[in-house]
Amino acid sequence: MTLAVSDRRPPLRVGLSRDDLTMRLGVVLLALVLLLIVGLPLWALLAKGFEDRDGKFVWFANYAAYFSTPALFDSALNSFKVAAVTTLVVVPLSFLYAYALTRAVLPLRWLFQGISLIPIFAPSLLPGLALIYLFGNQGFFKGLLGGPIYGFDGIVIAQIFYCFPHATLILVTALSTADARLYEAADALGASKLRVFFTVTLPGAKYGLISAALVVFTLVITDFGIAKVIGGNFNVLATDVYKQVIGQQNFSMGAVVGMVLLAPAALAFVVDRLVQRKQVALLTARAVPLVPKPKLGRDLFFTAFCSLVSVGILAILGMAAWGSLIKYWPYNLTLTLGNYEFTNFDASGWDSYFNSLRMALGAAIVGTALTFVGAWLNEKTKGFGLMRGVVQFLAFLPMAVPGLVLGLGYIFFFNAPNNPLNFIYATMAILVVNTVAHFYTVGHLTATTALKQIDPEFESVSASLKVPIWRTFGRVTAPICLPAILDVAIYMFVNAMTTVSSVIFLYAPDTKLASVAAVNIEEAGTTAAAAALCIVIVITSAAVKALHVLADRFLLGRLQAWRRR
Amino acid sequence: MTMMTTLRRAATLGAVALATVGLAGEAWAQKTRLTVYTAIENEQLEPFKKAFEADNPNIEIAWVRDSTGVMTAKLIAEKDNPRADVVWGLAASSLGQMASMGMIEPYTPAGSQRLKPIFKSGKNPETWVGMDAFLAVVCFNTAEADKNKKPKPASWADLVKPEYKDSIVMPNPASSGTGYLTVAGWLTIMGEEAGWKFMDALHQNVSQYLHSGSAPCVQAAKGERLIGIGFDMRGASEKTKGAPIDLIVPKEGLGWEMEATAIVKGTKNLDAAKKLADWSASRKANELYGKYYAIVADPEVKSMPANYPADGERLMAKVDVDWMAKNRDRILAEWTKRYDGKSAPKAR
Amino acid sequence: MNGAGEVPMSYLEVRNLSKRFGDFVALGDISLDIVEGEFVCFLGPSGCGKTTLLRAIAGLDPQTSGTIHQKGRDVSALPPAQRDFGIVFQSYALFPNLTVADNVGYGLVSRRDKKAAIAARVTELLGLVGLLDSGAKYPAQLSGGQQQRVALARALATAPGLLLLDEPLSALDARVRVRLRHEIKALQRRLGVTTIMVTHDQEEALTMADRIVVMNHGAIEQVGTPQEIYRRPATAFVADFVGSMNFLSGKLAAPDTVEIAGRAFRCAAQDGLAPGSAVRLCIRPEDVRVRDLPADVANRVAVEVTELDFVGAFCRATLKLREADDVALTADFSSNLIRDLGVELGRKLDIALPPDRLRVFAA
Questions:
Q1: Which of B24, B70, B225 is closest, CB to CB, to A137?
Q2: Vertex C258: Cα angle to C253 and C260 (nearest 5)
Q3: Residue A559: its pLDDT value, please?
Q4: How many contacts, defined by CB atoms under 8 Å, are there between A and C?
Q5: What would the CATH number be for the domain defined by A18-47+342-565?
Q6: Which of A229-233, A558-562, B331-335 is modeled with the greatest confidence?
């Protein structure tokens, strides 16, 4: 071979088609947008970590100060402990539940699936309140825990409730992509049930298990809502940020803790990325979907198990619902609808609810469009690795950022007098943008996963047929991904309905949100009204989800006739 | 194709949504709209607004309300481009902090001369003017006390008795302004050395340090705890709602803080802002404050809202606000070292 | 060796094409000419670079260096959309949410053709691939073979000058595959479209191609008609990869004599190899003669049948040289022959290896 000769030839510079240019321009724009809504606001706050309270640059002095206090290690250790224990409980629990949903024949399977989602619809205040009703010093089952609900136990129980649907969603996906042929092969070889489970089922769901564990771990590490309500004096990193920022208005230290908080979450995501990369090769297009056959013993066991978990979830929800109807806990248990007269508890009354609806709708539309088009651009642009890497990084960042940090960063960045975008400050728009940014990661991941599942040659075919790539996006890619697009929209909507930590800094006189109002009402001691507002939020999100399911079944069923064989 | 149209429609919808949302802020016409940041209680927002607007028909108040910590953080974070015109009803210490950062437009409201001196910044012109004082009192649940045969405390000294083990909650001074004024009050009344000794002893009885000043009395009101050390007004309003609690003013004296009003430097509505500052110092306004608080700035206004502890004003510690601000970092560091770092093992 | 000089005017002209992924050389200095209207197969084992070459020609994964001219136009640096080709992938890449007719008309709509004209063209193409009735169906409702034909029709819809087929038949079952081979070949001949097909299936290449380009390790081993490739493999790799081949190790005793286990075999004169060098003597199983051997037949050897495998139409026999225990070769015997000669295990025979059927490669 004459490689030596060809090596000396200058490498070929391939021309860019109009499509390539458009796509690259799109990626650049996307990177700019993400920089504006994620990167720069975050930096606006995190940079304060290198300044003293008067804004003078002090290098790592704040870090030195923070790392020399023993409190850091306590908080970090506590955060780690809570996250680890929650993960160790939630993942097996979710795995069994997901296994039941995908591999057993359950009566009312749809109901069990629906119930597993409920925690996602609830503001994190809700489990906190319900647990106090249930296990607090005046609670129905106060003896049951053998200790106070406030602190470690309370946080872990509330986090389990809160993280359960996230893990279950991931594991249901992981378990439903199983290949029936593997099980037939194992059966034919006479493998025992246990052996099949350990050699086929578990390895098949390995990546799902790892991602579920990482997601749960990150969620727990960055959440402060639960720790604040029920944590008592159990310090975690997220409440440390709260103390610095809200308690002492010390943004420099808040930034330092925020940065420390990024580390474990960022690490979790590096692992996730490495794992996900390997997964692609594992999926084969020709897998035969596994359809569970009835089997009495197993089905009875799993029905019982799912019922138990569902009862747990419903107990927490039901407790909050009941709590929202009583006059004065625990001394006057008469029922009343008065707690739903929100005007009596918060000046914005029901307005905050309608603000939340508008905001959630805006976030669903803007967020879905941005994450899906963004994921598409990043997935389908050829070459341009550096810029795509930047986009990927910025897309992953929000998941690792506590809302408090992002919210403050938004003030610093968007309220800066020399920022031409400062006109959106104190409008509904900034709430929408902030929420989209805050929940960008999961939307991006969902869209990317959906895009990875469709034939990578669609774009090659279009190019050969001289069809512009955006037309293929509109006619083929987007319609095929419609289920994923709707999933992202629902995700954005329900999270926008419940988000507090970031938007609490950003609402203006006319744009107060229901989730924030619920926190305010709870702080003012009107627990019942706070529970009532939480219940209204849950019902709204559940109704939207139910609408989605109905639409999926009837309307989309017709639109997506092509899926049928 | 349908999908493209849907997407296009969605995009338009999104743009329209954003635009309407943006325009909503412009819906005021001839009236001057004052953006007022506040931490006053939710139920006070409407009465305060109505009363002021009745006297000033050309000015409209647009509230932004949240807890003291969130509002102070937001105000300071917005320092370079202030969005508030007036702060009406925020802790004086927060306003003092803002004044030291040059964020306050000094203005001496008309008629403020007759207010109690302690309710003024003492600067000329004034940076902030106080409205009402709130105290860190002891909320004591009588129902739970009867059930468990616990005596009613009368002093701070009573609270360190072993019978109250694990039955006290108080705000964490690192997360809550009320918590800090409580601690600062003890250090003022008892002196530093005795103050810390007292807190060491109290720590044995505290089951939790909470993250807000309202929470302790709310928890006491709901019987979650026997005793909550916290914001008096919250305790009074819980009692009004039917909670079996007594508000106790310990006889040694107690820490306190006041709500105050100030004009934000850089406001585009300075005239209207001054009108609000004037009104806030007026007799009428003080009478309104008196509906909720026992101690108000106007010496002529005598009030005693329902279920409020008597004697509060007499027992207010002679707290030096400047000293409180200057020593905050030191005291919090000491407090955190003594109690916060150690709190984790206690939780289990 | 790539036959650049043999063709009068080439439609596709590939020169010094290289493709590297980091240190890995996927294609090393490939040059190739394809004549208009020709059906060319890129044949080789997986990983040999055949698909890489195809995708470079399409512009989907551009080469690292080298040039490609199509119909005299330098397309080396052009993006796929500015080149002139239609392509069918192994996965077909049919748009699942569009009907068969919409799939076929996909490239026509974007050219802003008149609606009626498009409909007519789609009908014509569906007729061409025998799917006139299936226009309203979705791809998932078709069989694999039908989907393959839709993909073909879609690729041909814009009447491209070059048709690229990337393992188009490998996902189909054997029977459909054989039928489609003929259909595709007939269609190609009818339309006269220059076609390149990538395959790892030598039978497919032999039956369909006008010329075969055999590739290995990112380089071209041989270019030639199926007959040339089969009869006169240029390298040991080609000899081994295409069809079955016996390899007997020996030594080149004289330019036209190979010595194996002390016995000399006559063959065509080998110019490129030095006498005395180690070589491999090759013969295809079907070229071993056993019936009606003349007395003076060249390369006569006495063998013993040690294995007999029934393969349907014929039997493959393993024959051990009686003079040298450790040398064996296989030969294909028809059923007739087996019956006539009474071939069975242990049977001793005389065979001949015709010199004109022997190939010699350096060991």
A1: B225
A2: 105
A3: 66
A4: 129
A5: 1.10.3720.10
A6: B331-335
Query: Where does A73-335 sit in CATH, by number?
Result: 1.10.3720.10
Encoded tokens for C303: 């063998």
Taking CB atoms and an 8 Å limit, are A345 and B42 in contact across chains?
A: yes
Name the 3-class secondary structure at B36: strand
Residues B332 and B218 in one domain: yes
* Chain B residues 135-194 with CB within 8 Å of chain A: 143, 172-177, 179
Q: Chain B: give the shortest CA distance to residue A295, in Å.
A: 43
- Classify residue B9: in a domain, yes or no: no
Using a CB cutoff of 8 Å and minimum separation of 24, what contacts does A342-347 make?
A342/A517, A342/A521, A342/A529, A342/A532, A342/A533, A344/A529, A344/B43, A345/A521, A345/A524, A345/A526, A345/A529, A345/B42, A345/B43, A346/A512, A346/A517, A346/A520, A346/A521, A346/A529, A346/B42, A347/B42, A347/B45, A347/B46, A347/B63, A347/B65
Q: What is the pLDDT of residues A468-521, one digit of tens each?
A: 889 999 999 998 888 889 889 999 999 999 998 889 889 988 899 999 999 888
Do both B93 and B162 map to the same domain? no
Quote the number of domains for chain B.
Answer: 2
Q: Find, in chain A, the residue whose alpha carbon is nearest to that of C90.
A: A457
Chain A nearest-CA residue for C142? A565
The encoded tokens of residue B74 equal 């937001």
Distance, in Å, from the CA atom of C99 to the CA atom of C286, rounded to the nearest integer, reads: 49
> Number of residue pairs across A and B with CB atoms under 8 Å?
226
Q: Based on the fold, state whether residues B316 and B168 are members of the same structural domain.
A: yes
d(CA C38, CA C195) in angstroms, rounded, equals: 6
The C residues from 274 to 293 touching A (CB cutoff 8 Å) are none
Residue of chain C whose alpha carbon sits nearest to that of A466: C81
Tokens 């909650």 sit at which residue?
Answer: B169
Angstroms from C283 CA to nearest CA on chain A: 28
> Are the Cβ atoms of C97 and A560 closer than 8 angstroms?
yes
**Tokens at residue A103, please?**
């591999």
Residues B70, A246: C-beta atoms closer than 8 Å? yes
> What average pLDDT does the structure give for chain A?
86
* C60 vs A: CB within 8 A: yes
Q: Which chains sit next to A, with 3 or more Cβ pairs under 8 A? A: B, C
| Cross-chain Cβ contact C79/A564 below 8 Å | no
Decide: helix, strand or coil at residue A123: coil
What is this structure's pTM? 0.86
Q: Which residues contact C153 (CB under 8 A, 6 or more apart)?
A: C104, C125, C126, C128, C129, C131
What ipTM does the predicted assembly reach?
0.85
Distance between CA B82 and CA B76 in Å, rounded? 9
- Distance of residue A186 Cα from the nearest chain C Cα, in angstroms: 25
Same domain, B110 and B181: no
CB neighbour class for B166 (10 Å; exposed up to 12, middle 13-18, buried from 19)? middle
Neighbours of A152 (CB within 10 A): 21
Name chain A contacts of B208, Cβ cutoff 8 Å.
150-151, 232-233
Query: Where do the DSSP E strands lie in A324-414?
Result: 326-328, 332-335
B159 and B97 within one domain: no
What CATH number does the domain containing B215 carry?
Answer: 3.40.190.10
**In this predicted model, what pLDDT tens digit does every residue of C162-200 receive, in sequence order?**
999 999 998 888 888 888 999 999 999 999 999 999 999
Which of residues B209 and A561 earns the better pLDDT score? Answer: B209
Enumerate residues 238 to 267 of chain A having a beta carbon within 8 A of any beta carbon in chain B. Answer: 239, 242-243, 245-249, 251
Residue B147, domain extent: 134-256+312-342
Interface test with C, best of A7, A12, A381, A480 (most C CBs within 10 A): A12
Instruction: Name all chains with 3 or more CB-CB pairs below 8 Å to chain C.
Output: A
pLDDT recorded at residue A283? 40
Residues of chain A in contact with residue C64, where contact means CB-CB under 8 angstroms, are 11-12
